[in-house]
């Protein structure tokens, strides 16, 4: 799946499609290659900023938090995503991020 996503990434423009591919790559690599997952999530954040897509930026911070092995840093990323999800009033994304914050405290 990683190979096919990377091929799609080469074809896409600097738009929401690319951001979603970066997010899928981040999610796919989270367990096997956290450093690469982090890199893809950071690219999604940068591209979300450039394209003014706050919902995807919040998802990217959530993905970054899930890839992070340092609990304090993970919480920092989740908080950034949570703030954006509040601002754009995306309750589903907010619930997802809150669940991830809770999992940090359970660990």
Question: How is the topology of this model organized?
Answer:
Elements: H1 2-11, H2 16-29, H3 34-50, H4 54-67, H5 71-87, H6 91-106
Describe this structure in words.
This protein is mostly helical and 107 residues long. The chain is 82% helix and 0% strand. The chain is built from 6 helices and no strands. The longest helix is centred in the middle third of the chain and has 17 residues. The radius of gyration is 13 Å and the shape is globular.
N-to-C span: 29 Å
Q: What's the order of the H and E elements?
A: HHHHHH
Give the CA-based shape: globular
Unreliable segments of 5+ consecutive residues: none
What is the oligomeric state here? single chain
Based on helices, strands and strand pairing, what is the structural class?
Answer: mainly alpha
What share of the residues lie within helices? Answer: over 70%
Number of helices: 6
Number of strands: 0
Please outline the major beta sheet: none
Mean pLDDT: 96
Note the beta-strand portion. Answer: under 5%
Q: Radius of gyration from the CA trace? A: 13 Å
In short:
With 107 residues, the protein is mostly helical. The protein has 6 helices and no strands. It has helices at 2-11, 16-29, 34-50, 54-67, 71-87, 91-106.
Q: Main traits of this protein?
A:
mainly alpha
């Amino acid at each position: 799946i990683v190979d096919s996503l990377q091929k799609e990434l080469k074809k896409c423009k600097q738009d929401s499609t690319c951001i979603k591919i970066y997010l899928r790559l981040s999610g796919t690599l989270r367990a096997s290659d956290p450093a690469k997952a982090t890199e893809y999530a950071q690219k999604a954040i940068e591209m979300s900023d450039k394209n003014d897509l706050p919902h995807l930026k919040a998802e990217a911070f959530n993905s970054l938090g899930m890839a992070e092995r340092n609990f304090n840093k993970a919480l920092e990323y989740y908080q950034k995503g949570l703030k954006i999800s509040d601002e754009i009033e995306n309750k589903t994304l907010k619930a997802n991020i809150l669940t991830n914050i809770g999992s940090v405290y359970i660990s």
